[in-house]
Amino acid sequence: MDPNNVDLVENRRRMLAGELYYAFTSDLIADRLRCKVACNAFNTQDGAGAPRRKLVELWKDIVRDETPLPPPGSAEEEAALASYPWVDSPIKFDYGTQCT
Questions:
Q1: Which tens digits make up the pLDDT trace of 13-38?
Q2: Closest Cα partner for 60 from 78, 31, 36, 84?
Q3: Which parts form a coiled-coil structure per UniProt (predicted)?
Q4: First vs last C-alpha separation in the chain
Q5: Do the Cβ atoms of 62 and 35 come closer than 8 Å?
Q6: Backbone angles phi, psi at 72, to 5 degrees
Q7: How many Cβ atoms are within 10 Å of 9's Cβ, its own excluded?
């Protein structure tokens, strides 16, 4: 794979499919940095005993989940928060995608 001539869309498709890809394109470098910052924020708050809602918000940042949460204290909040995984820190992901 020629690093100077990488089709970014095809490269990302290959990455998501678990195929060989080039990890040092500008978009993937930016994605790793974004995910690293999000993981660090999660790890810092989890160790500080943050409320469940805050941890879910930080998790959503890691995995790029833009689904809005119900307002705090609403009847729907508890069910919405329960639908997200419990994750113990420290965590580390490359991109924050395909986290199951």
A1: 999 999 999 999 999 999 999 999 99
A2: 84
A3: none
A4: 29
A5: yes
A6: -55, 135
A7: 9
The pTM assigned to this predicted structure is 0.85
Q: How far apart, in whole angstroms, are the C-alpha atoms of residue 32 and residue 39?
A: 10
97 vs 84: CA distance, rounded Å = 15
Q: What is the Cα–Cα distance from 61 to 13, expressed in whole angstroms?
A: 22
pLDDT digits (tens, 9 = 90+) for 43-91: 999 767 789 999 999 999 999 999 999 999 888 998 899 999 999 899 9
Q: Are 77 and 35 in contact (CB under 8 A)?
A: no
Distances 64 to 3, 40, 53, 75 between C-alpha atoms, Å = 27, 15, 16, 25
Q: How far apart are CA 24 and CA 3, in angstroms?
A: 8
Cβ atoms of 54 and 43 closer than 8 Å: no
